[in-house]
Amino acid sequence: MQPIYLDNNATTKVAPEVLEEMLPVLGEFYGNPSSMHSFGGSVGALVKKARERTAQALGCRPEEIIFTSCGSEGDNTAILSALRANPEKRHMVTTRVEHPAVLSLAKHLETRGIAVTYLGVDASGRLDLDELRASLRKDTAVVSVMYANNETGVVFPIPEIAAMVRERGIAFHTDAVQAVGKIPISLKDMPVDYLVLSGHKLHAPKGVGALYVRRGTPFRPFLIGGHQERGRRAGTENTPGIVALGKAMELAVAGIGDENTRVKALRDRLETGLVAAIPDAIVNGDPASRLPNTTSIAFKYVEGEAILLLLDTFGICASSGSACTSGSLEPSHVLRAMGVPFTFAHGSIRFSLSRYTTDAEIDTVLREMPGVIKRLRKMSPFSAATDEKPSCTC
Amino acid sequence: MWEYTDTVRDHFLNPRNAGTMDDADAVGEVGSLACGDALKLFLKIDDAGVITDAKFQTFGCASAIASSSVLTEMLKGKTLAEAKKISNKDIAKALGGLPKEKMHCSVMGQEALDAALKNFAGEAAVAHEPEGELVCKCFGVTDVQIRRAIRENGLTTLEEVTDFTKAGGGCGDCHERIGQILAEELSGAAAAPKAPGDGAPKPLTNLERMRLVTKVIDEEIRPALKNDGGDLELVDIDGRQVIVSLRGACVGCPASKLTLADFVEKRLRETVDPEITVKEAR
Question: Quick one: which of A392, B46, B160, B184 could link to B34 by a disulfide (CB 3.0–4.6 Å)?
């Protein structure tokens, strides 16, 4: 059965055009770009082209792009670089809703003597910019705020935040893994120091990403060794991945219109259809500032993992903020930071669409989902009548 | 994705005996919406004390629903005395096993059964019976539940206690207390089942502490260090001070100080005594 893949914030299908460009680099063009022969040199030219395409898509210069292995590497490299470049500054600011690539690093840095301010969000997942401004200190080395949230799709006002932070002479990093390819981003008009993206979220394969470092921003490498990436990231280049990323970036820019019209319309139809058909369902996150492809909907009185496994029987792929889908026992830190009640958080389902999502697929979800929720609610000891107050204190 | 057995999948997709029972003779209820899973078990019991029918309502993940479903199947036709003997292990076994992180679902089944049997015996069918000391506030788990899970399943680490009871899976404030309970259970100091609500834990004797430190170092700490090419030797135990000597890759490793504080000391504090300090032999 061909899956109905609505989990594109987790990972995406490699675009056929991308696959076509990368396959020869996995096959016949296996040379090392650093080699002093034209066989290797030809691969070096492909890497150069990929760098130019990536820079073009982001509105920056090619030399400001460092290819990495993933989003987590980019985030770690950027934040650690900012801290190492300012050793006398021992404070960083981030948010409570970051991806673990930033959040777990921040927690780790706390054990190494870095003070961290975690900014909260309101019930719609929005940041308070006054709170952000007030959190900036003389010894703040870096501010790290994600561009768009992976679970709710809420988009933060990054150009505004970047300007505020840079005005104080503080380095600004943004994890843009979920935003690149989904909303227009131009680094030309945005004083960001470090921006991170990941290939597999935008129809390139897993194992490749990019870190943008603004020209003039002090940089300390994370991986030390060879001279690759102009000494800023050691390790022989993932040439097929890099070539793929370049093509995927080009396609993303070309497709950004479709993403914000057709894909957005599909998302809206799915969202309004589900909320209309299923009682006790609410949308998580600020409807005014959201990625066009994402919706997170909470279904009361049912548990997310059970919903996902029933959807799976129809070939529908989605994800959940429920505790039970991860090894942890607590529901999503993003939904908790937003103050989503436990009675909703456990039953939150995220659908994330892509350029490959079709009308027929949305029809199938709209047809099957009400039955799935009804079936589980029938089995549940809770209902609107027995709505109980959360007795847990966490 | 979890690796569920075919039996778990079958009981989740085709749950047996789901629903309520209006004329139940016994009802057992555990868990809450806030905690992420809850189970209400209904039993019909005849005059001879045989369970003639069982039904359930469950809010929870696939393994919670499957555990409830298989439990109702197991209960039908059993006498009360036989039902009393059903443990969480039996439930997990009937499902062909559960992922270890999901074992608490089988424990929930057992606890609902307990509650139902108590209800039949005349006690109130309330969720969250405040029996014993409340250890984990996030998930409402008492020391009585934790001790039972440790004994019946041979648990030895904090992580396992969390997998089986959910205790400690939230804010983490109770990790130290769970460590003490584990230490008591492992050292045999509490080999005899404790009366519910039995006050504060007995402090360890010197001998018990030494035994436990040795056990944790040999069985847990050294194997972990060896995985990274390191090792350590226990040099001396003086009261609450543990003196060790680093071996293998740990020698001269710049991270060894952190290993001692963040791992060795932390682990010993969790499992043996919160006041233990670890020093390197000079």
Answer: A392
